[in-house]
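Inputs:
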Amino acid sequence: MDGWNPDEERRSAWHMGRWLLVANRYRDVLANLSRMRIYEIIFFSGLAIHFAPFLLGLKRFTASDSAHGVMLVKAILPAVVPSYVCVGLGYAGCVVAVSGISIRMGACLCLIAFQTLWARNSAPVQTLALCHSWNVLTILSLWGGTRGVRLKSSMLAAKSRRLVVITTAIGVFFSGVEKLYSGWFSSRPMTLLLSFPEGNLMRNWTLHAFRRYREEFGLAASAMTVVFELSVPPLVLLPRVGAWVAAMWLAFFVAVGLMIEVPLLFLTSYGAVGILLARHSSEANEKSWP
Amino acid sequence: MNLRSNLSSVAWLCLVIVAALEQRLIKLVPDRVWSPFAHLMPGFQFGYVMFDVIPVNLPYYRMWLGARSVPAETIDANFAFAYSNARFQINAMLEPAYLRDVCRSSGKNFEIERVVRDLKTRVDTVTAKASCSDGRLEP
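Outputs:
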C-alpha cells in the first residue's frame, strides 16, 4: 500500500495513548472534586483577582481614598499593620485555600487581611459583592470547608455549603424585596440603564443591541429580575433542588455579568453558588439538606 | 434540622436576615443617632447602589485624547478586570480626588469633562472641564 508507514502509525498510536492516559488522570481528579471544592476554588480565585489593584499598584491608592476608610480601623491599624503585610497575608490566604491545604486558615487570613485593606483604602475595590464575600469568608472561617480533593472530605463541608447557599439566597431574596419597596416597576430602572452613555455601567454591546427596543426590553428585564429574585431563592430551600434551578441561577448571574459592568467577584461569589445547588450523587446520603 | 445541634447555624442565619434588612432598619433610626456611626461601615454608606433607584440625571466623566473621545479604561492604568469603565466612573463620582491620581499615574495628556445626562431625553450637558498635562490636573 502506497504511503503506509507502520512506524509512523505506531508512533501516532503511542502519542494518542499517552494523551488519553493524561486526560483520564485529569478526569479522575475532576470527578473527585466535590461541588463545594469547585466553589471554593472559584470564590478564592475571584477574590484574588478582585484585590489585584493592591498587588499591582499599591502606591496609587493612597491619596484619594482617605475619605472612604473606616474610621475605627484607620485609628487602630495604620502604623501597626502596613498595607503590604495585608496584601501578603491576603494572597497567602488565597493560595492556602485554592491549593486545599486548609480552607479555614485561608478564609481567616483573607477575611482579616482583605477586610483591613478594604476598610482603610476602599475606593478601588469597593463593591456590594464584597459584603457577600465577607459572609462567605466568615462561614468558611467558622465552619470550615473541604480538605484536599478527596470525595470523603467533601462531606465535612456539608454544613458550610448549606450555610453559603441559604445566606446567598436570603441576600438575593431581600434584594428583590428592596426593589419592590423602592418602586422598581414604576421607575423603569432597566429602561433608564439602557439610556446610560457608552463606557459607563452598561456594556457597550447591550446598548447597541437593544437601542431600538429600549422600552420593551427594559420593561421585560425589570420584571424578570424581580420575578427571579423573589421566586428562585425560596426554591433553593426545598428538600430536593433540581438541576433546572441551578441552571436558572447560573443563567441569571451570567446574563447580568454580560449586560452590566459588574466585577468578576459578583459572579464568583453570587453566581458560582449555582454550582452548589443541584445535588451531587455522592451527596445523596446527606440527611439535612438544605 | 436538629435545632440544638445547629444553634450556631440558626444564630448565623438570623444575623444574615438582620443584615439583609439593614436598609429598612436604618430608616427607623433618626439621622442624628445614625450619622456618627455611618463612617464605621462603608457597606451601609454605599448600600443603595443596587440599581434599586436609578437617578434620572446621571453625572459621568467623558475623556478626550486629543480630538478623540476615549473610554476611561484607555486612560486609567488601574486594574479592574471586566469592569474598568464602571470602576472609574464610580470612583470619580465618590471621590473627585481620584481624577488627580489617575492624571498623575496615567502618563498621558488628556481632557476630561463632567457631563450630566438626562436619562429620559438622553441629552448631555457639560458642567465642568479640566485638562491633564504632565501629571497635573487643572483646574
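Remarks. Chain B touches chain A through 59 residues (CB under 8 Å). Residues 7-20 of chain B form the longest helix (14 residues).
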